[in-house]
Predict the 3D structure of the following.
Amino acid sequence: MISKLSTPALFTAALLGAPAFAQSAGEDDGAVDAMAIYNRGAAVIQTTRDINLDTGMQTVGWPIDGRLRADTLWLEGDGVRLTGLSARSSDDSGAGLLAARVGQPVTLLRDDSAGQAQTREATLVGLSGDSALVRVDDRIERLTPNSLWRLAWPAGGDAPSGLQLDIEADSAGSQPLTATYQIDGPSWQASYTGRFDAEAGELSLQSLAVIDNSGGSDLNAKQAWLVAGDVSRANGRGPQPMMMARSEAKMSDSAPQAVGDTYRYTLDGPLKVAAGATRAVSMMAPVTLDAERRYRFENSFYALGRDGARSHAAVQLHFENSSDEPLPAGVVRVYDGNRKATLMGEDSIADTPKGAPVTLAMGSAFDITGERRMVEDSKTENNQRKRSVEITLHNASERDATVDVVEHLPDAADVVSSSIEPRDDSAANTATWEVDVPANGKTTLSYSASWPG
């Protein structure tokens, strides 16, 4: 199998810092046994190879695709001990792949006037700026981005980007060795699309897992999982290696599996994502959840604007994850189910377990506005401060609205009077009211708060 890369394309990609090389593989070529991709980035790979071993100390090659983190390798085999390793540069950009080939055979390719491919065998002897130096027979030739010849070399197998493992074996013969390691680059995130029916108070939610392969090499695994959750990272890098059972049993793709303190979603069938590509796969069955749209007018006690200045209330969508599955972190896009082609808004959610509440910020309400002004600011004889605030909410729409008014108060402040009774479940140093505002009308909330001066 030959992977071809024209010289102009190679050097242009190297200057831009973009991956310019991807191995092509057959149906099973280069596929690892198992791969777990983490939504925070990086992937853990586990694969088994039959290796012919000698007794005692020796070095064996192990092919690797992707940006290997060599210090994460775990090797397992009967009577086999890993005593050391060496890894070539994990730079899988065009420049890195070419630099890793210095001193090795390459093939020079070009098309003749009849469109037939011509080849010459050569050895890559060095790089100089945007030029490659090759030895052909007994002479050195220089290839530039404008040369007619282009470079090619075999892909797959014990590629230059692989590992050299120093191992000690108790006995000779062929036996399976299993390697577990991490590569940087691949990641995934959940992507949700929802349809909110305000009349029924329901949110219909469907989900996809979007796999982003920015690792510079193809992802090719016989079995793969997507892992949701946050695991500790040393120096901000990828997850620690996790042993994965080599099982032929197919897990249900509709039920994530709890693995320690994370959740793992099984992909149906092998995983293949080309270098630099993005692939979306169904993550779970659609669900319908009870949901409520609410309006929120929130301010700091000290933030008082000019008289007559209005601001818009925030639109929020509240629901509880009453489904039987956790919701991995991702973006939620919600359409209005009562109108054609109408986007309510988009927001991100964190990893959400079963039964947890979710609040989505959908934007600002065009017709729900509020004015807020201070009507009194005084100090009593016992060094108590007192301030009175008036909030007028306006509703220019054709339907009644309920607005959550939230005021952030000073430390140790108490609401001493209010035209509307505040809720008794407000957070510390916060007062919250539910204010009904009629269609094409307005409602005024007045309250006073005091606190130690």
